[in-house]
Amino acid sequence: MAVNRAPRDRQDRFRSYSRVVRTGPLAWHRPTTEDEVVAAVRAARGGRLKAVGAGHSFSAVAAPEHHALTLDGLSGVLHLDTEQRLVTVWAGTRLRDLSAALLARGWTLPVVGSIQAQSVAGAIATGTHGSSLVHGNLATLVHALRLVDGCGEVVDLGPDDPRLSGARVHLGALGIATCVTLRVEPAFRLQQEVEHVPVDEVDVMGSARSAEYAKAWWLPGASRAQVVRYTRTDQPITRRPSTRTLRWVDDNVMHRGLFHGLVALGHRRPGWAHGINDRLSGSYLGPRVQVAPSSLVLNTPMPLRHRETEAAVPLAHAQEAYDRVVELVRSERLAADFPLEVRFVRGDANWLSPAYGGDTCQIGAYATDGPHRARYFAGFWEAMDGLDARPHWGKELHQRAADLAPMYPAYKDFLALRDELDPERVFDNAFLRQVLSDDAAR
Length: 442
Hints:
Blueprint: E1 2-4, E2 14-15, E3 22-23, E4 27-30, H1 34-44, E5 49-52, E6 67-70, E7 77-81, E8 86-90, H2 95-104, E9 107-108, H3 120-125, E10 142-148, E11 154-157, H4 164-167, E12 176-183, E13 185-186, E14 189-198, H5 204-208, E15 213-218, E16 224-233, H6 244-268, H7 273-281, E17 289-293, H8 294-297, E18 307-314, H9 318-332, E19 340-345, E20 360-367, H10 373-383, E21 390-391, H11 401-404, H12 411-421, H13 430-435, H14 438-441
């Protein structure tokens, strides 16, 4: 196993996707086998070791302080069981690679997120989700989980193990995931339809229930929002952006070229932002109707670097949450250059899942680091006050353990599981000290 002992260059430092979170761990461990993960954990006892997947979280959930362990060497499909509809993968496998490998064999994940750069372990750890009231977040797909605990022991959590409900959304606090078994289904196509709706006429609840997969986007200040529905179809594929040329155009010409220029203009002239967004919103999502494999049409190209915060509110509060953010942007003339994204997640019973106990609307405020970004994010959370909003673990959040413990009925159970699997706090970091506390649970 390769180990780098000091952060001598940029590659040895940890940086989150947004570049807001940065740390300089003392050493990087690069295991390629589970035995090497075990050895790294045992060597780190008495200190701190944090596993890092893709580093795509906007929060500091994966930020290492002492020792860092990259999961990049633990990647690939181990076994596809078509009879049981299960796939077992190394935990460091990127979602995009898993989707491609499954599609090549005629299979797919039932739901994926907007971005597929994340590792499987990281995606389940934070409750990463798509948008569907038929399907839960990605953690609900976990049928079994194998991890190395804080004592350096391999722990298998099968479907009948009650601890699995606590370990699915694990925050990196319980161990280092090495293998994950996920539910899959035969590959299918989706037809995407985009409806342009006046911003004040968006029926959030109706949109949520209008298709198996549905979401709404609003570029702040635009006169219209976009309600996007995805339905299963046997129609021929019309979208093929997986080809190298078209993907390059989408990533580099549109997102890093044209859109980057408009963002820069909005930073210099915040008063123009709403007008720019109004003109851009009509074409932001591409053709009104298109057909593609589900794992392709449900995700977007890697966007321009930006920041995100997100709240999960009970579905009954979805309309109020949306209306409040629209009013915030209008009343304060806030300039934001990324969509307000309104998505939906089926409720589940995973202890620290933001969708624990009932269906949720996951409403996300996104923006580059422009002149109004800080006020926008602060106002967003002020708007969520009184709506029983839980923050997304992988997005920027200010809440502390005292705020979070009352939100999760199984919070104490998770702390007890952490005591069992990591009694010496080998996997601790500043983020976990912020959100997990025995005092808060009393």
